[in-house]
Amino acid sequence: MKLMRYRRILFLVSVLAMVFSITAIALKGLNYGIDFTGGTNIRFPLTEWVTSTQVMEALDTEEIRQLELDFGPPQPYNYVDSQTGRQCYGVLITSRFMSEQEQQTVISALEAAFGVSSDESALQINQVEPIIGKELLLNAFYAVLISWALILVYIAFRFEFKSGVAGLLALIHDVLCVMGVFALLGKQIDMNFVAAILTIIGYSINNTIVIFDRIRENLRFKKRDESFVRVADLSIVQSVRRSLNTTATTVLPVFTLYLLGSPTIKDFMFALLVGFLVGNYSSLFMTTPFWSFWKTAEERKSKAGRLATVKGK
Amino acid sequence: MTRALKRKTWIIFALVLVVTIYAIVPIFSPALKQKLFKGQDPLRRGLDLKGGLEVILAPDYRVESRVLSAIQTHLLKEIKEFGVEEPTVSVLGKANDNNRFEGLLFQFASQDEAERVLRAKVIKDRLTWRAGVEEKNLLLRTELSPAEPTVLRVKIEDDPANFPSDALYQAKVIIENRINSTGLSETVVRLDQNKNRIEVQLPGVKSQEEAEKLIKTTGRLNFRLDDRVVMFGTDLEDAQAQFDSQSGVPVIQLRFGKVGAKLFEQITTEHEGEVLAIYLDEELLMAPVISEPIPNGNAQINLGAGATLQDAKDYAILMKSGAFPISLRSVLVTQVAPTLGTETVRLSLIAGAIGIILVLLFMLINYGRMGLVADLALLIYTLLVIGSLVAFRAVLTLPGIAGLILGIGIAVDANVIIFERIKDEKRSGKVIRSALKAGFERAFTTIIDSNITTLIVAAVLSYFGTGAVKGFAVTLALSIVISMFTAVFVSRTFLEIWINKSPDKFLSKYGVRG
Prior knowledge:
Number of strands of chain A: 6
Helix content of chain A: over 70%
CATH architecture of the largest domain in chain A: Up-down Bundle
CATH class of the largest domain in chain A: Mainly Alpha
Number of helices of chain B: 14
Low-confidence stretches of chain B: 507-514
Helix content of chain B: 40-55%
Radius of gyration of chain B: 34 Å
CATH superfamily of the largest domain in chain A: Multidrug efflux transporter AcrB transmembrane domain
Strand content of chain A: 5-15%
Number of strands of chain B: 20
Structural class of chain A: alpha+beta
Number of domains of chain A: 2
Strand order of the largest sheet of chain B: 4-6-9-8-7
CATH architecture of the largest domain in chain B: Up-down Bundle
Strand content of chain B: 15-25%
Strand order of the largest sheet of chain A: 3-4-2-5
Shape of chain A: elongated
Shape of chain B: elongated
Distance between the termini of chain B: 26 Å
Oligomer: heterodimer
Number of helices of chain A: 11
Radius of gyration of chain A: 26 Å
Mean pLDDT of chain B: 81
Order of helices and strands of chain A: HEHEHHEEHEHHEHHHH
CATH topology of the largest domain in chain B: Multidrug efflux transporter AcrB transmembrane fold
Mean pLDDT of chain A: 83
């Protein structure tokens, strides 16, 4: 196997994936949940499926219009209650941060239009003040940045700076790809998504290090005239089996949860699935080519240097 | 078996036994559960897996409409004296749950006038407002509205110095008492001193109404004569509902503290026959008439005909709980339906079990005998992780489950790395014993390096993360440390035992597979 012969193509695929993701995020935008934007979510239980338009019409009363609640598009949902086996329906309503009185007004309007649900506990109200939302988002952002910085320092210390940059690039690639997919599908970005992203970072860096470790070891025993590319090739071949086996063992439980899970779990596991797959790709086929471009340039430079000395004599 | 190997086996055996008795048996034996965990679940579940309600409360420094109107009159006078045309005034934003407002909007005739008023600091940064016994300092922030340059936006807030420095702590204690009296279990009331917030978790609470009664009636109790506050609820020591011993009707018995008793005597003597209205913040609770001077700080409110003892109890709770030294507003409310929570756990358990079984099979098929060792190590890993979660009283959340899944991956991965290494060493011509030794030694640096980077992520998260993310970080960190232990110590011990017992068999099996 001479995978590194295709290193430019392999790396290009990753770059294209990043460009594609950035375009998706820029064009479609990220669908932030109230965790980050602040606002009120009302999950209103229904006895049957209704359309988004019907809900909008029910909420279009004089009284509610005056409150200027800034509604997002209502999202109808359905699920099967595992205890009773019944099919349940509901609609998710998003608005700015409401006071209790305003919530009551909205709920009364919905009850007038669609009737009162028998299952009282299925009515859920979640609220986040905009200030808190901003704080949560910033916290998550700082956490990611700081962990990246520390990872860079650790890899630079244990391996070399170039490999640290390569590892970090892979992390940026993975996070961007997952965000891009979520932007494309319009899925919501909330606190669980942040946890998924962090899991992906942990997984991807773990994977990358295992390959780097092989390269480090093989570099120690390499012959004088052997190029970095050849060493990298050998290392990838040596670790490909381990990488695939490990991916299989991690993806298996995630995939079962994705298949069986309720809507919240589904989105969470979906993020993990996408992340683990792109993380695997980037660890194997993005970091090593990137490191080798840099290394090859270095090798050429030092060769040129040696030649210069010869000439000088 | 060598002595060292024997000792290692005993350590593993003892560890498994202790963890099983401590963490696993109580799940099936209520008696042991009662003894070890006071009847609570050994593995604590977060609200997202259990259902319930989480509320984060912060001090409400916004101002009441009666304060706002006084400030408005005052500011209009100042502006008039400054010599610009009188602006139109409206309220900034909408009333919040405590019926308080953010501030005022002044619409001037021109942008020039608005800017002049702003520059000359006609609207001061600080004002003091007085009415009755009430007096408070207010902080004002004036700026040009970015959208409409003729409008000055004045944000008005209570000066935090108006309240005692431990006001939030007192409020926390009050909420705690209220919740404890309900008998709800595993509730959390936490005060974050740095951020000035109180976090309340009520697992198992089904409806918002139920929770609202407990924590959302957060207003400040006050007594008013003629719509002027004359006394605050802070002076109220106790409020009890009971039947009057003579008439037999339900009444509310109030007891005031030393200062309160004196003030109450003065008020009731001077205003006999008048209405003493009782407010919770801006909301009228009741308006009893003062029938006689009350000297000793013990007052009785007669609810009148038709009232039940439950009515009296509700009022008493509200009055007692209303004795907050500070008004609070909820800045975050998270509600998870209990059915959804248990559903999530059930699904995760099924999926987790299926996932682990698949992983066990996978390892067995791929690595034969070594796979069997890895499977055994993985089972011990799972047991130890659950045990340590129980021992540290960590809270398992949905992201926490992801942490566990990642942990399984990492634990298996360590074994895969080691086995692949041993194979490599064997291929390069070493005998099985030295291949094993070299394989473990070489794999060790890989495992350390790859896991330390993941540990770094976990550490940063547990420091920066809140709630669910923190739960994730803790489970991840525990999984990593334990996975390293099982791979390097447990797997190795088992492999060594096997090779010691029948090196040829191990070899032959290995030879076929390699």
